[in-house]
Amino acid sequence: MSGMTLRDTLGRPVRDLRVSVTDRCNFRCSYCMPKSVFSRNYEFLRHSELLTFEEIERLVRLFSRFGVQKVRLTGGEPLLRRDIEELVALLAAIDGLELTLTTNAVLLPEKAPALRLAGLDRLTVSLDSLDDATFRTMNDVDFPVERVLAGIDAAAATGFSPIKINMVVKRGVNDADVVPMAQHFRGTGHIVRFIEYMDVGSTNGWRLDDVVPAREIIDSIDSVIGIDPAEPNYRGEVARRWRYRDGSGEIGVIASVTQPFCGDCTRARISSEGTLYTCLFASTGHDLRALVRGGASDEAISEELGLRWRERRDRYSELRASATASSPKVEMSYIGG
Ligand code: SAM
Ligand code: SF4
Ligand code: SF4
């Protein structure tokens, strides 16, 4: 069973695994965890409900036998999970895995050295605007932009390079910040990735009108700086790459709404309480924690993983236009980006 390439009903292998380590966050980005829903009274998971580091390590190891090569730790805010570097160290000991983590950077200045030392390969930082007022509004906890920039600098000083910078673009909110963002990070070696605002979960009140299409993002940058398309680094890369014509670096654009890439989607997700999702837009998942805590053997868990991947037929983004947009979906902060 293990060791062979697993393919879903559309022939897609499993290559990437996103693991959410907490559903909590110190931000309340309106497009992800709006305050109106994620208020003081919101019931987050209890610590005992979260997968332990050992449980995560076991699942990742079993997934790696099926061909998973890249693991991204996410959340919620992954750096809020206490001693996260211990999990990084456990995963870094698994052969052949590239280990990355996505963060809002609030805790990066204090955490970057330990993460690096523990074996984290790459970092992605989310930053939606360089304009302090816009950024404070978008994170909705009045967090200043300069502290995110300090987090990025601290991580770079520790040896993370290049750092990817994720910017979710929302019409009328931060679309004016696209070009300044490109200009700021051009020449630094860091790679800004502009992300179309997605209809993840059911709490962010998503409307198609809020989406700034990738084409528009590209055109606005091209008209000021000059960019050319670049070849993907590998098949299934979600970000389309563009290079500055003057050689000062590259950017990425993630067009999940206007140019869906389900046909190449090789990504599985495990929520912080150990539920497996085979699509970001899934409304139901498969309970791995019950298996793990119920004493299942590695073989039995592998069999479940194999079964769930083999029966996978998800292509939500390709079908978005037709029917499913109003069905309940799991929240981004729960499943991880
Ligand atoms: N808290 C961490 C952070 O913000 O980097 C990690 C978790 S966050 C859910 C992962 C990524 O998902 C972030 O880069 C965030 O911008 C992105 N994201 C969240 N909601 C989104 C949405 N509705 N559309 C597009 N991207 C979204
Ligand atoms: Fe928190 Fe990240 Fe969601 Fe913002 S995008 S609310 S930082 S989990
Ligand atoms: Fe993958 Fe689902 Fe996104 Fe399509 S909609 S790219 S299947 S996560």
Largest sheet: 12 strands, mixed
Q: Which ligands appear in the coordinates?
A: S-adenosylmethionine, iron/sulfur cluster
Q: Report the structural category.
A: alpha/beta
CA-based gyration radius: 19 Å
End-to-end separation: 29 Å
Any idea what the shape is? globular
Strand order of the largest sheet: 7-8-9-6-5-4-3-2-1-10-11-12
Work out the helicity level: 25-40%
Overview of this protein structure:
The two termini are about 30 Å apart. A hairpin with an 8-residue loop joins strand 11 (about 275) and strand 12. A twelve-stranded mixed β-sheet has the order 7-8-9-6-5-4-3-2-1-10-11-12. It is about 30% helix and about 15% strand. By secondary structure, it is α/β, with parallel strands linked by helices. It has helices at about 55-65, 85-90, 110-120, 130-140, 145-160, 180-185, 215-225, 290-295, 300-310, 315-320, 330-335; strands at about 15-20, 70-75, 100-105, 120-125, 165-170, 190-195, 225-230, 240-245, 250-255, 265-270, 275, 285. It has eleven helices and twelve strands. Helix 1 (about 55-65) runs parallel beside helix 2. Bound molecules: S-adenosylmethionine (SAM) and iron/sulfur cluster (SF4) (2 copies).
